[in-house]
Amino acid sequence: MADNDQVLIGQIASGDESALKEFYQKYENKIYNFAYARLNDSFDASDVVNEVMLEVWKNAGRFEGRSKATTWFFGIAHHKVMDKLRKRGHRTMVALDEQLEDEPVDMAAVIEAARNSQHVKHCMQKLSDEHRQVIHMAFFQDIGYPAISEIVDCPLGTVKSRIFHAKAALKKCLEIRMRGAET
């Protein structure tokens, strides 16, 4: 898949509109979901998709292939999302302890709670923007920690810390909601 993406980007760089159309069809939903998870606004998420595709069209020739194509365009999407959040007045960074280790979380409680998507959605919305973003990329977009680090332009330790704290917060929220649902 990665080789095909690099070929597509090369074709886009040479002005091939059909390659852009193929790229758009392949990644429109993923970019939209990525943006929507952060912005919680369908119009802004659609704007981000269009802005990313325009950037890919204009800057495909600058893609050097040093990272996966998905890392490159999700990085563009991240920056577009951050621009929208700044316009809304949201803070973009939270200082976290980068030395925390990613400890195992009792996922049995989380999996049980995940059966009810309303609980998960509620708890995801309770997370900070930074935590929601890394959880979405890691578990819903299946992006690895090093790529997330590149996309959000922060150290790998910060990504691990954010995921650790986000998983702990999700677990706590889901446990509280599930106890409330049982009574």
How does this model look, in words?
The protein is mostly helical and 183 residues long. The chain has 2 domains: 87 residues, RNA polymerase sigma factor, region 2, helix turn helix motif (Rna Polymerase Sigma Factor, Chain: A, Orthogonal Bundle), CATH 1.10.1740.10; 76 residues, Winged helix-like DNA-binding domain superfamily/Winged helix DNA-binding domain (Arc Repressor Mutant, subunit A, Orthogonal Bundle), CATH 1.10.10.10. Helices cover 75% and strands 0% of the residues. The chain has 9 helices and no strands.
Structural category is mainly alpha
The number of E-state strands comes to 0
Number of helices: 9
How far apart are the termini? 48 Å
Molecular shape:
elongated
Written as H for each helix and E for each strand, in order along the chain, the element string is HHHHHHHHH
CATH architecture of the largest domain: Orthogonal Bundle
Q: Name the assembly state.
A: single chain
Low-confidence stretches: 90-95
What is the topology?
Elements (H helix, E strand, L loop, with lengths): L1 H12 L3 H23 L2 H18 L9 H20 L18 H8 L2 H10 L2 H12 L4 H8 L3 H27 L1
Q: What descriptive keywords fit this protein?
A:
single chain, 183 residues, mainly alpha, Rna Polymerase Sigma Factor, Chain: A, Arc Repressor Mutant, subunit A, 2 domains, 9 helices
